[in-house]
Amino acid sequence: MRDVAIIGVGMIPFGRRDEDTLMDMLAYASLKALDDARLGEKSVDAVYVANMGGGILQRQTAIASSLVDRLSLLPAAAETIENGPASGASAIKNGMLGIAAGFYETVLVVGGEKMREVTGWRATDFVASMTHPQAEYPYGITLPGMAGMFTRLGMEKHGVTREHLLAVSLKNQEMGTLNPYAHVEMALDRDGIFDSPHAVVNNPTSADPLHLYDLCPVSDGAAAIVLSSVDFAKKLGKPYAVIAGFGQATDTHTLAEREDPTDLKAVTLAAQQAFAMAKIKPADIDVGMWPNYTMPLPSSKSPRVNMSVFSRRGRAAKPPQPVRLVSVVRSRSTSPAA
Amino acid sequence: MKKEIAITAYKCRKCGKLHYPFHDRCLECKGREFEKIKPQGNAKLLTYTAIFNLPWGFDQRFLIIGVAEFENKVKAMGQIKADSVDQLKVGMKVKPSWEPVRVQYGEDVYGLKFEPMK
User: Fold this and answer.
1) Please, what is the average pLDDT of chain A?
2) Interface test with chain B among A125, A141, A146, by most B beta carbons within 10 Å
3) B107-116 and A210-211 strand pairing
4) Per residue in A102-154, pLDDT tens?
5) Residues of B numbered 44-103 whose beta carbons fall under 8 angstroms of chain A's beta carbons: which are they?
6) Radius of gyration in angstroms for the set of CA atoms belonging to chain A, rounded to a whole number
7) pLDDT tens-digit profile of B73-105?
8) Residue B54 to residue A144, Cβ atoms within 8 A
9) Distance (Å, rounded) from C-alpha A316 to C-alpha A331?
10) What CATH topology corresponds to B40-116?
């Protein structure tokens, strides 16, 4: 198995993008990544599109083939990957495997969702379609509702309080103000969403004990990366990243059947695989990311977990100090869910 | 008229592991033979939430949903008959019933409901 390089990245600002179709957003992010990779007129061998909602929200299928056509990447192989909120990470993994196996030289991976096309009720129902069709869905359970039940357990078992959740919420909100791609770039203060009498209006309960600002917004957006073999990357004469490790694991479909729902077994197993492949320990990690629709519990519902460890290698003659990023990509890598 | 609780749990004939809902192979030992078990007795509330942002298809202002464990260890999700989460506690006893939980295409869909017991 050979190493896989990330040679280009592209993202468009998230938010409510009424003027763009799903295909527009996928195309914009893809072109940014292809340009960043300096591929010029060159095509890629394969395109993987991560998308969960197209079939339900846009009534569009075979999205990857459509994108290859729009981007004039014909006759590149095209596949759409639907794996719930883990679709983005799954698409990256599949692109990576194609290159690692020596089958492909270059792969474009792009993920996108257009969730604001429908009302909040419809979007919430769409995301809830990943719950168990008989044992969970009919009751009106939602993904934030699942996260609420996990959080309740975390409160009982580990003494998590609303103040703990608030600290995460304020930190994340502040990060949003520093991120030009963020949907909500608005600094919040503790008083406005917690202490003052207006807090119940500004930050209402969404899925008890979780409140509005404990959850991510429902967004339109897209992001893309271009993968290649390391040999190919070296010839580009620009810095590139190497995927040092990844992991993926699955837990039971229903929340009720998890041995200990707060244990996040799939996350733990995926992380162990990623660390083993990268030959590093958690203590070696400088920056970690847990994309998810709710902050408190990273594995709040989806049984599918992907994890990747990246290391950065520059062109420097001396071995550079690698910056290692660990990314538990379990929510969609492109847009947060309802 | 009180309706019978129409869910079925599956007990592995090889290792005894209890499943709900159905799996084609036992999650513990991969066995394929199961004894059908009906949930029995009252239940214990394991976790719960009140959802204020409901999916399309529900007209209520909010819904309280939880997971409970029956006396014969079957665990299942259901709607909770309470006005507020303030009336609930993890570990409390709840009484199960089989009632309409939503309306789909003009028809009642039946499911589990749990009512807190004094």
Assistant:
1) 86
2) A141
3) unpaired
4) 999 999 999 999 999 999 999 999 999 999 999 999 999 999 999 999 999 99
5) 46-58, 63, 65-67, 75-79, 85, 90, 101-102
6) 20
7) 999 999 999 999 999 999 999 999 999 999 999
8) no
9) 34
10) OB fold (Dihydrolipoamide Acetyltransferase, E2P) (2.40.50)
